[in-house]
Design a protein that fits this description.
Elements (H helix, E strand, L loop, with lengths): L2 E6 L7 H14 L3 E5 L2 H7 L2 E3 L27 H13 L4 E6 L1 H13 L4 E5 L15 H22 L1 E7 L6 H10 L3 E3 L7 H13 L5 E6 L7 H11 L4 E6 L11 H19 L5 E6 L2 E6 H4 L9 H9 L2
Parallel strand pairs: 1-2, 1-4, 4-5, 5-10, 6-8, 6-9, 7-8
Antiparallel strand pairs: 2-3, 10-11
Helix pairs in contact: 1-9, 2-3, 5-6, 6-11
The structure holds 6-O-phosphono-beta-D-fructofuranose (F6P).
């Protein structure tokens, strides 16, 4: 293998830079030329491809975001777009590609690798943790820590005013961020898409909490919850429980930024290194991940089906601990 390429795609996540650095330096160590594709699949289509040197990835390990930039490409959904992308890879004699991203990235890679004969290895770069084949995705731990930091601050003001806060966190259609951050902040309830939200039950729990004089509380709402977003849920709760002084906070994109945690730097470095070895060994159409401390490879079509992964026992744990 003489030349490979690396790109980041979809929502950026802290640790993507550490991952790019690991890919570039591992490849160069094995005398493989590395190209960086800018702006994800869109840059692949538009030929935004340039060679990377070891100094290009110096001093980026600790930085959030991605030096290769990212995008969600509509053009890549068309065969015309994908054909242009393939021709650009061929022009640079690229023999293997490392795709760092989430489910959308791997769905694209899955189609592309069926149509064209360039091997892809995926790396799980998303804050959502919604991929099968890895215990943690790159960026998830940092995002969790971002949520804890923000909600700890909200708890100070909530306690001062005896308020009930609905805090909405990211995660798209998955509740991984909500579940673990909810336990981490001691939320009174955690609402996730994987479990139907019974608003009547939530209201009864809140009524009981009020009766036992719990003066302030946090409810963590995953953005994809089936009862609606935090504003909608809070509106319905307030109608039934006007005695609560209620506020809503949508944490938004601050969850996705910032310097990667130690765990994310390690995961990104290890997986970036492994992905190059995997391409060299002839692996393709798989995502590299770490399960129970072991590196493993999961076909793209399996990696993007997250729904059997959420540990709903954690909801019970949260209920008992936050009483
Ligand atoms: O996939 C990462 C993520 O941050 C999701 O949690 C969220 O739903 C989405 O991306 C937001 O996307 P955008 O940055 O395009 O608004």
């Amino acid at each position: 293998m003489k030349s490979i390429a690396v790109f980041t795609s979809g929502g950026d996540s802290p640790g993507m830079n550490a991952c790019i650095r690991a890919v570039v330096r591992t490849a160069l160590h094995h005398n493989i030329r590395v190209y960086g594709i800018m702006h994800g699949y869109q840059g692949m289509i538009e030929g935004q491809i340039r060679e990377l040197t070891t100094s290009d990835v110096g001093n980026i390990l600790q930085r959030g975001g991605t030096i290769l930039k990212s995008s969600r490409s509509k053009d890549f959904l068309t065969l015309e777009g994908r054909t242009k992308a393939f021709n650009n890879l061929k022009k640079h004699e690229i023999e293997g590609v490392i795709a760092i991203g989430g489910d959308g990235t791997f769905a694209g890679a899955k189609i592309f690798t069926v149509e064209f004969s360039i091997p892809f290895v995926g790396l799980p770069g998303t804050i959502d943790n919604d991929l099968i084949g890895t215990d943690y995705t790159i960026g998830y731990d940092t995002a969790l820590n971002n949520v804890l930091e923000a909600v700890d601050k909200i708890k100070d003001t909530a306690a001062s005013h005896d308020r009930l806060f609905f805090v909405e966190v990211m995660g798209k259609d998955a509740g991984f961020i909500a579940l673990r951050s909810g336990i981490g902040v001691g939320a009174l309830a955690i609402l996730i898409p994987e479990v139907h939200t019974d608003l009547a039950e939530l209201i009864e729990n809140l009524r009981a909490a009020y009766t036992r004089k719990k003066s302030s509380s946090i409810i963590i709402v995953a953005e994809g919850d089936d009862a609606g977003g935090a504003y909608e849920i809070a509106k319905q709760v307030v109608q039934e429980l006007p005695q609560y002084d209620t506020r809503v906070s949508i944490l938004g994109h601050q969850q996705r930024g910032g310097s990667p945690s130690a765990l994310d730097r390690m995961l990104a470095s290890q997986l970036g290194y492994e992905a190059v070895l995997a391409l060299m060994a002839g692996k393709h159409s798989v995502m590299a991940g770490i399960v129970n401390k072991e590196v493993c490879y999961t076909p793209f079509e399996k990696a993007i089906k997250h729904h059997d992964k959420v540990n709903t026992d954690f909801l019970k744990l949260s209920e008992i601990l936050s009483a």
